[in-house]
Amino acid sequence: MRMQQLKEWLDYLVHCRQDMALLYGRLQQQADASRVKLLLGYLQKQQVHIAQAMEDYIDQAQPGSLDVWYKDVEFEDFLHRCQALMLPANMNSEDVLALHLDLENRLIALLEMLAQKSAHSDTCSMLEDLVRVERVQQQRLVHSAQRMEDI
C-alpha cells in the first residue's frame, strides 16, 4: 500500500509530459517525411509547453490544496513506455497522431482516476477541470492535424 499526495501525482504528470517531448524528439530524428517531422516537432513543443504550464499550476495552487492524500493509486511506468516506443522511419501523420492520442489518453485517464478517488469535492472539481482542458486541447490538436493533412 503506497500513499501519495496530489502534488506528487501532478509532478509525475509533468515528468510524463517531458518524457513525451523526449520521445517526439527522438522520433523526429528517425522520421523520413517532412510533414511527419513537422508534426513531431509541434508535438514536442506542445509537451514542453504543457509541462511548464502544469509546473506553473502547481506553483500557483492555493496552499494546502495539493496536500490531498491518495491510497493505492497505481499507474504504469510511463517513462519505460516512452523509451520503448518505436515507429518505423516511414511512419505517417496518422501513426504519429494515433501514438500521441494513446499516450495522452493514458494521462487523462490518470487524472480521471484521481478525480474519482478524491474525497474532497474541491479537489475533484479541480481535477475534472484539468481533464476538460486536456480534452479541449486534444480536440484542437486533432483538428489542426487534419487541416495539416488537407494542405
Write a structural description.
- With 151 residues, this protein is mainly α.
- The protein has one domain: Ferritin (Up-down Bundle).
- It is 75% helix and 4% strand.
- The protein has helices at residues 6-30, 34-60, 78-84, 93-116, 121-150; strands at residues 3-5, 69-71.
- It has a two-stranded antiparallel ribbon with strand order 1-2.
- Helix 1 (6-30) runs parallel beside helix 3.
- The protein is elongated.
- It starts with a strand and ends with a helix.
- The mean pLDDT is 90.
- InterPro entries: Ferritin-like (IPR012347).
- It comes from Shewanella sedimentimangrovi.
- This is ATPase.
Kindly provide the name of the CATH class: Mainly Alpha
Structural class of the helix and strand makeup? mainly alpha
Q: What CATH architecture would you give? A: Up-down Bundle
Radius of gyration: 16 Å
Task: Estimate nothing, just give the exact number of structural domains.
Answer: 1
**Which topology does CATH recognise?**
Ferritin
Secondary-structure element string? EHHEHHH
For the biggest sheet, the summary is: 2 strands, antiparallel
Low-confidence stretches: none
Mean of residue pLDDT? 90
Total strands: 2
Number of helices: 5
Say which CATH homologous superfamily is assigned.
Answer: Ferritin, core subunit, four-helix bundle
**Which bin fits the share of residues in helices?**
over 70%
